[in-house]
């Protein structure tokens, strides 16, 4: 019973670590994109002073993009990725202490109560965080027989799909203002 409980804590902790990393990545990429969009619009504004737009549509679209940046800034700040990641980090650090205590415990009732209270301090991880934890732990463990959960090929494909999807979404969002500008300037 003790090894099952400690195993549950260990995997929960690993999934929380992946969830924290995911939220920190979201924070970094959203901040980067907001900075990129703002810089792009400032550069465009300077450029349009030198070479004024041929039609009014271009100015209207750029004003709409400015408003979009404002809305996205408010949205990303309200998502509080960094604050949520901090709560997850605090949670998995405490789970590490509970895991260590569970390895030598004779009575798990008090540890289970503490485990439940620690889980209540932060949001739950997503399924993809747990799957990524399984795949990464399997890839990074030399003695695979020590792991109680083994990823399937489907799990590996899911992780690859999540990474590819994130890359494509980021690339599209990065290139979006450039494509808009080229499209507008070409439609003279």
Task: Give structural notes.
- The protein is mainly α and 188 residues long.
- The protein has one domain (2-186).
- Helices cover 83% and strands 0% of the residues.
- The chain has six helices and no strands.
- The protein has helices at residues 2-50, 56-79, 81-104, 109-119, 127-140, 153-186.
- Helix 3 (81-104) packs antiparallel against helix 4 (109-119).
- The N and C termini lie far apart (73 Å).
Name the descriptors:
6 helices; elongated; mainly alpha; 188 residues; 83% helix
Number of helices: 6
Shape: elongated
Give the total of domains. Answer: 1
Distance between the termini: 73 Å
Helix and strand run:
HHHHHH
Q: Name the average pLDDT.
A: 92
* Number of E strands: 0
- Share of residues in helices: over 70%
Radius of gyration: 23 Å
Specify the biggest β-sheet: none
- Residue stretches low in confidence (pLDDT < 50, at least 5 long) are none
Structural class: mainly alpha
Task: Note the beta-strand portion.
Answer: under 5%
